[in-house]
Request: fold
Amino acid sequence: MKHPRSRNRPRALPLSAAALRAIERRGVSRRGIQDLYYNLMTMPFAGLLGMMTGYFFAVIMVFAVILHITGGLGGNTHGRFGDAFFFAVQTLTTTGYGDIYPVSLTANLVATAGMVIGQLNTAMAIGVLFARLSRPRPRVIFSKVLVVREMHGVKKLMFRVANERRSEISAARMSVVLTNDEDDGDGGIIRRMLPLRLERDFSPVFALSWLVMHDITEDSPLWGKDAAALAQAGNVLVCTLTGTDDALNAAISARHVYGAEDIRFGHRFIDVITRSETGDVTIDYHRFHDTEPRDNP
Reply:
């Protein structure tokens, strides 16, 4: 993609992982009703419950005010607003205890409308909550940092991924893309997406931990670069894991973004998987993000 830039304007700061995580979008209109389902699915769960509670309370208040003004309720009622309010609650929830009931045509019409709206509200609330709770959410963690170290004479870029659930992810596939800002020679910036070739980008069964590695050879976009060069070029690593959760039988995906500030040169990850004398395997997630300097970098 190309970003126009004035020749006299100072060059913008290179892209970073922090900037990529907090992109400010301008000139995009909010489509509240058209994007209602999307907003309901993406807002915080506490906010969703609060909004639904407020909506139901507002509907009840509207019907209560109408019934209190028009009257027409019989039974155990004394014309108080509280009687109309609780009758509206019972009608909208289709509870109907029977101690208060409509006796006029207007009250019956209002009660009929309340029953229909109440059932629609219940169906909508159950549908949204079910969609939120049934949506597959992977519990995949990426190491907070990457390391660059030499193994068998080859410099490698590494990061770790782990599956926090006891279920397995089958046919897991990892892709890593490097963003690179280039001057187009005409006062603009072209951002290129350069895929990194991984030593292993596929795992038939992803159950515990996966050490993702990329060889930094002469054909690698990272060849000859240190942390300062990566930051200057706006290099950001976008890592995406896809697969199928065996327990949910659903496709899942997880993504993480690394910047130049997240790379540890000359470090190695601390081992988190141990095997006992009986053959039992244990993984310690408390040290999953920990690294240590190599004795012989």
